[in-house]
Specification:
By secondary structure, the protein is α+β, with helices and mostly antiparallel strands. The chain has 2 domains: 89 residues, membrane protein fhac (Ubiquitin-like (UB roll)), CATH 3.10.20; 79 residues. It has 3 helices and 10 strands; from the N terminus they run H-E-H-H-E-E-E-E-E-E-E-E-E. Strands 4-5-6-7-8 form a 5-stranded antiparallel beta sheet, with no helix packed on it. Strands 1-3-2 form a 3-stranded mixed beta sheet, covered by helices on one side. A two-stranded antiparallel ribbon has the order 9-10.
């Protein structure tokens, strides 16, 4: 009886220190995304006690990255502790852009592509060419995290051309030219 009371006391007050720890975190099913990019979105670290709330929050954070159609995890118990494996199904991240439209005597067409996981690090690059009586083009580059830090950069290059002046219902709008 004395052992049961002492064992219960130790478990209740020191149970967290006896809990098995996470000994390995790995990623499975990655084709393009770099594992070092994903580690920064996982709060659970090697050496931490296994916490299901943190594990589910990490799963959701990884699913929100727009690169995966499915994110799951597997917890395996080993003699040393727990091995966590996040399993992914990656989406196609290179997407074409093709659109067209028009109204009375105004026809336009746009052709381009976007990559939402450039370099396997979640960077985005969008480029397109548009023709609307003149040629226009644009390139947008977003670096989400530079050197795994929580800041990034955005670069835009746009050459936009259109016919001026604009015509409205049998009237011409003239823009004054300022000196």
């Amino acid at each position: 009886m004395k052992r049961l009371v002492v064992g219960s006391f130790l478990f209740l007050f020191f149970g967290a220190s006896f809990a098995q720890r996470v000994v390995q975190i790995e990623f499975d099913g990655l084709k393009k995304t770099k594992p070092e990019y994903l580690y920064q979105f996982v709060d659970l670290q090697v050496g931490d006690a296994l916490d299901s709330a943190v594990l589910y929050a990490n799963k959701q954070r990884l699913a929100n990255l727009e690169m995966f159609s499915d994110v799951n995890f597997l917890v395996e118990r080993t003699n040393e502790g727990y091995r966590i494996t996040f399993a992914f199904t990656e989406l196609y991240t290179f997407l074409p852009i093709f659109s067209f439209g028009g109204i009375e005597e105004n026809f336009w067409v746009q052709v381009g592509a976007t990559e939402v996981n450039l370099g396997g690090r979640g960077n985005k690059l969008t480029t397109y060419y548009q023709y609307y009586d003149r040629s226009s083009f644009a390139a947008h580059l977003t670096l989400n995290r530079i050197k795994q830090r929580p800041w990034g950069a955005n670069f835009n290059l746009i050459k936009w051309s259109t016919l001026e002046p604009l015509f409205f219902a049998d009237e011409v709008v003239q823009y004054p030219i300022l000196p």
